[in-house]
Amino acid sequence: MAAVQPVVTPAWVVGLFMTVGVLFVPLGTWLKLKYADVVELTQQYEGSGTTVDDCSISEANEGKEVKFSIDKDMKGPIYVYFELRKFYQNHRSYVKSRSFDQLKGGVPGAGICSPLESIDTLDLNPCGLVANSMFNDVIVVDSAPEPYESLSPYEYMDEGGISWVTDRDGDFSQPDGFVRAECAPSVSCEDCLGSAAYSDCGSFTDRTGTSYKYWYPDEASTQYLYETYPNVISPVDGVTDEHFVVWMRTAALSTFRNLYGRIEHDLVAPAEITFNVTASENLCAFVCASLTSANDADWPTHGSGP
């Protein structure tokens, strides 16, 4: 039996294209108008090609001011990104070098994190190229515009809720055996954590002034994430830190942006907002900071993730 083949006539083709046009031309017009409402400001502060002398960080751990002059109103939420160029997270060997079991608190399989499983005599937790090449510059609001000068930097720019809910709630957990508890600095490890087995615990006070005691298993033979990035990752958060969670969702292209924080307040022009950037290590890649505001309540926002 001969196969049934539709006859493509000129009228059928013209009708199809007209139908597609009727559907997509208005959609494209709507998207273009919405895009015109987006306000985006970008400032390069590090890397090859930096042309602004007073916005270049040349030494590790050197803080620099990055100023944005607001000449058009920006409606909150305003998203703060960092951007990297010529950073190839899409390389096969790079993407494979991680242990999903370890990131969930378990034990990595043999060789799964190759070629970066340990440093000298210390096992890395987490291991792998992705986890141990994290962007670790620190970006803090140094000067908030009126009328928010009284807010602390961490109150003005929220660094929580920047990762996908499915990532932070199901894919990242502290190592099995990790213990932490909130207690005053004067309280002993045994009393705070409930056992003499934790007598060699550590103490940590976060940016809000809350004090904790914490204990990691096998710490003498393991380098944990907070030890790899002491200026970025707190020992009580470890692999659940949202900046780390965002970084572990690798990019498909060599130029990419990751969400760093969110400002819920409107910025009314003219205004100026200043960030203090501390470079934890020198980067050969292009790095910039970016502010983005949709300026329209109907424009889709990030919702559950960046």
Automatic annotation (TrEMBL):
<comment type="similarity">
    <text>Belongs to the CDC50/LEM3 family.</text>
</comment>
<keyword id="KW-1133">Transmembrane helix</keyword>
<dbReference type="GO" id="GO:0005783">
    <property type="term" value="C:endoplasmic reticulum"/>
</dbReference>
<dbReference type="GO" id="GO:0005886">
    <property type="term" value="C:plasma membrane"/>
</dbReference>
<dbReference type="GO" id="GO:0005794">
    <property type="term" value="C:Golgi apparatus"/>
</dbReference>
<dbReference type="Pfam" id="PF03381">
    <property type="entry name" value="CDC50"/>
</dbReference>
<keyword id="KW-0812">Transmembrane</keyword>
<keyword id="KW-0472">Membrane</keyword>
<protein>
    <submittedName>
        <fullName>Uncharacterized protein</fullName>
    </submittedName>
</protein>
<dbReference type="InterPro" id="IPR005045">
    <property type="entry name" value="CDC50/LEM3_fam"/>
</dbReference>
<feature type="transmembrane region" description="Helical">
    <location>
        <begin position="12"/>
        <end position="31"/>
    </location>
</feature>
